[in-house]
Amino acid sequence: MRGQPQKISSGEATARNRDEILALFRRIRARSLDLAAPLTAEDQCIQSMPDASPTKWHLAHTSWAFETFVLKPFDPNYTDFHADYNFLFNSYYESVGPRHQRPKRGLLSRPPLEDIHAYRVHVDAAMETLIVTAGDEAWGEIRPFVELANNHEQQHQELMLTDIKHMFSCNPLRPAYLTSKPRAIGDGKAADLKWIEFPQGLVETGFEVSASQAAAPAFAYDNEGPRHKVWQDGFKIASRPVSNGEYLAFIADGGYVRPEFWLSNGWAAVQENAWRAPFYWQKDAGVNENTENWQVMTLAGMQALDPMEPVCHVSYFEAEAYASWAGKRLPTEAEWERMASDVSVAGPVAGNFADSGHFHPTPVQTGAVQAGPAAQVFGDVWEWTRSAYAPYPGYRPAAGAMGEYNGKFMSGQMVLRGGSAVTPEDHVRPTYRNFFYPPDRWQFSGIRLAQDS
Q1: What is the pTM of this model?
Q2: I want to staple 431 with a disulfide (CB 3.0 to 4.6 A). Which of 48, 160, 224, 279 is the partner?
Q3: Which residue ranges form the domains of the chain, and what is each CATH number?
């Protein structure tokens, strides 16, 4: 789990009532099973690399989280489904106890899938009883942890899809998870890339709930705050993410064989891994780097590369190298958030999320409906920033297990913003901080450029 919930002011404590949280709990739990439904039992046991997890493990671990952080602390009548599950499905919580090794999750052929489904039924029944019957005073203490576990499961729904995609990409048959649903969002003409200018000034960034923020969500992870002030020199930010067609120009200009564009560790990664294109791109050997020759692995199987789609599955190193080649830079996360706050000020975030069923980035087109001058700020691809994942001024991790995730991982990772085509739609907000290591490429990560004014 990504850490403890933010403290909620009294004015926002009733932003979601008990019935709404129960309905959300039911919807999220059902959604995880829906995502697993197209898979065979064999599919759900496979771990295609150490950073990925089997679908079956995701289904069990999210149940373990409700059991460990809600039911056991707050329900004295709760009984474990199985004594060994705390060892099998704990992810990385040292204070909770020892755990099965992460790279060996794919060896857990037992317990069988039907036992994991029974485990979910057991946890769901206990959770529903607790939510409905807890007294008002107890519910005030329980509610933030239920919301945290709900959001945690939504994170794993995204990870399920990214891990399924990687698993199927390793199969020489290149099977499809689902037939991609069409998504018509414009008139078929690619939108021009424009530059949105922001003046210099002292700005506030980060999450904070207060009585003056009536539209603020009632939940945020602790790493999104405290809200604080940041001085920004004037800057410009691109109106849309970098497209496949634009990235092809980088490849054709020797982007992967010219070390002058790369950070030292990035160039080492290129050499060690023989990178020549984004992850999941494939073409026949010996042909020119043009659109017609490239295909890309998607959750709908192999597809012809669309030059108008946002480039996806690039590492931080590749994003940084592309920006250097283009004579630009990546935005800081505070710059990105300033842009995103302008887009979302009128209401909830909107974009191409997992809810559309498309499960793949879509092109920005001239007829697309958008709020403000920036397009695809949310959804489609997570956008790398140049900001290291570090604590905000005044951040303090919580004591115990709930403080383990964020505080202890604030080293060596970079921040991404905005959500992707496999992120649940109601899971993101302008302050949401995702983070991965610079070489990571299996996430739906892309590029939005910035430059100094």
Answers
A1: 0.92
A2: 224
A3: 18-169 (1.20.120), 180-453 (3.90.1580.10)
